[in-house]
């Protein structure tokens, strides 16, 4: 394995996301999109967050 391959594998391992952490975030912060932010999906996370905030504002 070349040095470049090793560096690429190290970067990949560092960027892997834990499914357990994602589920914990979903359980506690799911309605705010916390799990989506963690998984690197800011678009859908922002949509979930906006829908939640608008829903709360409509209840007031």
Question: What do you see in this structure?
Answer:
It is built from four helices and no strands. With 60 residues, it is mainly alpha-helical. The chain has one domain.
Rough outline: elongated
First-last Cα distance: 60 Å
As an assembly, this protein is: single chain
Structural class: mainly alpha
Characterize the biggest β-sheet: none
Mean pLDDT figure: 91
Radius of gyration: 17 Å
The ordered string of helix (H) and strand (E) elements is HHHH
Work out the helicity level: over 70%
The number of domains is: 1
Helices, by number, come to: 4
Strand residue percentage: under 5%
Query: How many β strands by DSSP?
Result: 0
Give the low-pLDDT segments: none
Layout of strands and helices, then pairs:
Elements: H1 3-15, H2 19-29, H3 34-38, H4 42-59
Which characteristics define this entry?
60 residues; mainly alpha; 4 helices
How would you concisely characterize the structure shown here?
The protein is mainly α and 60 residues long.
């Amino acid at each position: 394995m070349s040095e470049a391959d090793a560096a690429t594998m190290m970067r990949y391992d560092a960027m892997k996301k834990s499914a357990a952490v994602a589920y914990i975030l979903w359980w506690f912060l799911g309605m705010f999109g916390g799990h989506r932010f963690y998984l690197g999906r800011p678009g859908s996370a922002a949509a979930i967050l906006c829908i939640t905030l608008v829903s709360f504002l409509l209840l007031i």
